[in-house]
Write a structure and sequence with these properties.
Blueprint: E1 2-9, E2 26-29, H1 44-54, E3 58-66, H2 75-91, E4 97-101, E5 107-108, E6 112-113, H3 114-126, E7 132-136, H4 144-149, E8 152-155, H5 164-180, E9 185-192, H6 208-212, E10 224-230, E11 243-250, H7 254-270, E12 280-282, H8 284-293, E13 299-303, H9 318-325, E14 331-337, H10 339-348, E15 353-358, E16 371-383, E17 386-393, E18 396-401, H11 411-414, E19 425-428, H12 435-438, E20 444-447
Parallel strand pairs: 1-3, 1-4, 4-7, 7-8, 12-20, 13-19, 13-20, 14-18, 14-19
Antiparallel strand pairs: 2-3, 5-6, 9-11, 10-11, 15-16, 16-17, 17-18
Helix pairs in contact: 1-5, 2-3
Bound molecules: zinc ion.
Zinc ion (ZN) binds at residues 137-139, 161.
């Protein structure tokens, strides 16, 4: 059995001014993939490779490229990665299947739906009979082109995502079942006209928990071999925005698959009003008021409008400006990306005082409108390998970095010698907190701040998203087509 593996994973935020270039990607290709290099570690591809290895499959490693969610991918970057990936598929003789680790929701200049484009290219190389099976993120936006060119999709079932590898295992397991029993499989898909943010659909909380509980994965030739829901990604203005129900069956059980996809889609639609913020959410000022009244430190507030894990630029100083104006004591702001400010602090040296124009205060403007502050340079160091400084402004510590980073792992603070337990209030650039940050606080708050990941979806100026779509449009009738 010869199975090609690889994939490209990107969640593209089309609202940010940041473009995503080739240098932004972590890339691994060829045989190096088999040793699970850093780029592959913890991803669905790791699960795919491990399962295939355990089953003594001959693995044809292609290319895996991944980067933190960010803006639209430059066409040249995509073309480069696509060519390297497809060349390896092309050069592989007699493949029995292709199992890919994708995200879904990847958008490229002049291409648009890049997941669909990539799958279409793979299909044109391997022909119509070779199964193409994809592991996808729960926040994938499914498109016509994706469904037309792949045989099966298997999605994560947790957000925060703690089952990436497990999903890879499932995708590989499905491929093995198909090949061992010479099954022909197909996907039934219902696209639901809905936008929902990850912050309204954490999987431990209803209604998402309830819907996930209805999903199955039993790739043993039963009628329904696997079912998944995909919540889409609301910070992309694309004509194919939707939430999806996907059911994988054998060709013979296609009508059972269609009925099950409709049932899941109806369940999601009926619960559309129940997708509310799974963390308490208020304007920033209100979050601070609550935090100051709380006795158990630290209270962690997510600056959710500028969330890098959903592609935001992470350079907005709006939340910091409010912290300063409200004269908040013993607080930490993690982080603000500003390379020029970092350079100025390094040139001035530790303990010196500097006048800085930091970040941006106007989320609609790419440049200008910085926050002017006088700060003391407290420390210069590396945070998760990224050059960073700690600034002191009044009674607030601010981490300024040279590069965007997910505020996911508290090591980010530990690397700079900071102990989160010593602060009353910590503001992080995040949506829902990572399990690690969640564990540090008795109470997490979502600050509804402006930015590229504005959680108030009804206020986002979508231009090309197809209407009607909930919640931008509330009063319209929809039912899955029979
Ligand atoms: Zn996701």
């Amino acid at each position: 059995m010869r199975i090609a593996v690889g994939g490209m994973q990107h969640e593209t935020n089309t609202f940010t001014y940041l473009k995503t270039s080739l240098e932004d990607f972590s890339i691994a290709e060829g045989d190096s993939l088999l040793a699970i290099p850093e780029a592959v570690e913890g991803t669905s591809l790791q699960g795919i490779i491990e399962t295939l290895k355990e089953n003594k499959v001959e693995i044809i490693p292609t290319l895996f490229a991944y980067t933190l969610p960010s803006g639209t991918i430059e066409k040249a970057a995509y073309d480069n990665l696509k060519e390297r990936f497809l060349t390896r598929i092309q050069d592989a003789d007699q493949l029995d299947a292709v199992v890919l680790a994708m995200h879904g929701s990847m958008f490229v200049e002049d291409v648009g739906d890049a997941d669909g484009d990539l799958l279409e290219s793979v299909r044109s190389i391997v022909g119509p009979r070779i199964p193409i099976i994809c592991a996808l993120d729960l926040h994938a936006t499914i498109t016509n082109k994706m469904v037309k060119n792949a045989n099966a999709f298997v999605g994560y079932r947790t957000a925060p995502h703690i089952d990436k590898e497990a999903t890879g295992h499932k995708a590989a397991e499905l491929a093995l079942e198909v090949l061992r029993n010479s099954l022909e499989i197909t996907t039934s898909w219902v696209s639901i006209p809905m936008l929902v943010s990850g912050e309204q659909s954490e999987t431990k909380v209803a209604p998402t928990s309830k819907i996930i509980a209805e999903l199955v994965h039993m790739p043993d030739g039963e009628d329904i071999m696997s079912s998944s829901i995909f919540l889409g990604f609301p910070w992309a203005d694309v004509p194919f925005n939707c939430v999806s129900a996907i059911v994988v069956t054998t060709q013979g059980a296609k009508s059972a698959g269609e009925a099950e996809a409709r049932r899941l889609a109806e369940l999601i639609w009926e619960n559309r009003h129940e997708f509310v913020f799974t963390t308490e959410a208020y304007p920033m000022e209100e979050c601070l008021k609550i935090a100051l009244e709380e006795k158990s430190a630290p209270i962690i507030i997510a600056d959710s409008g500028d969330n890098p894990t959903a592609g935001a630029s992470e350079d907005l100083a709006i939340a910091l400006d409010i912290l300063i104006k409200q004269r908040v004591k013993n607080a930490l702001m993690a982080v603000i990306v500003d390379e020029a400010a970092y350079d100025k602090c390094v040139a001035a040296g530790v303990n010196s005082h500097v006048d800085l124009d930091l970040g941006r205060l106007d989320p609609t403007k790419e440049q200008g409108s910085p926050l002017s502050i006088r700060a003391q340079v407290k420390k210069i160091g590396l945070s998760k390998g990224i050059p960073s400084v700690i600034l002191r402004v009044d009674d607030i510590d601010v981490i300024v970095t040279t590069k965007r980073t997910a505020v996911y792992d508290p090591e980010l603070l530990a690397d700079l010698g900071l102990d989160p337990r010593e602060y009353e209030i910590i503001v992080v650039k995040s949506g829902y907190l990572s399990p690690e940050f969640q564990a540090l606080t008795k109470r997490a708050l979502l600050a509804l701040t402006p930015g590229d990941t504005n959680l108030l979806l009804e206020t986002i100026p979508y231009q090309v998203t197809k209407r009607p779509i909930y919640p931008l449009d509330k009063e319209f009738h929809w039912r899955p087509k029979a």
